[in-house]
Task: inverse folding
């Protein structure tokens, strides 16, 4: 029994087999992406809720009691109002997605720049003699 208790404690006395800082930064990056996605979902929900209220209002107007001859024009007005509502809703959702896409693009570009810098630093630390004498992409003077 003594060996079993010691065996059970062994994993807790060992160092972590992963880079805890990398995991923490990974969760932070995921949190930023999730925040953008949740904001987009919240704004989309607002658009859908507003559109639903407007559609129900259009239906309420359509369902009013009328003279028989007034139903044709009422249906035409309803159809036009619903078409306009669909157009406005699509435009509002496009704006939400455009904002989300811009935020994601900026976040991804920032993460790419950070990763590139980290890889460059690691490469320079690992192979200091292989570092170029001049920045990559610069033209040399004509001889």
Result:
């Amino acid at each position: 029994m003594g060996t079993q208790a010691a065996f059970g404690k062994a994993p807790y006395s060992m160092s972590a087999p992963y880079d805890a800082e990398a995991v923490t930064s990974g969760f932070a990056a995921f949190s930023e992406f999730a925040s953008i996605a949740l904001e987009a979902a919240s704004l989309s929900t607002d658009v859908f809720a507003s559109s639903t209220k407007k559609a129900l209002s259009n239906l309420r107007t359509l369902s009013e009691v009328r003279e028989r001859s007034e139903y044709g024009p009422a249906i035409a007005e309803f159809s036009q109002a619903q078409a306009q509502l669909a157009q406005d809703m699509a435009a509002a959702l496009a704006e939400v997605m455009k904002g989300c896409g811009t935020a994601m693009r900026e976040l991804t570009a920032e993460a790419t720049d950070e990763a590139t810098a980290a890889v460059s630093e690691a490469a320079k630390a690992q192979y200091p003699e292989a570092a170029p004498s001049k920045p990559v992409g610069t033209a040399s003077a004509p001889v």
Summary: The mean pLDDT is 83. The two ends are 81 Å apart (CA to CA). Helices lie at 2-13, 20-62, 71-126.
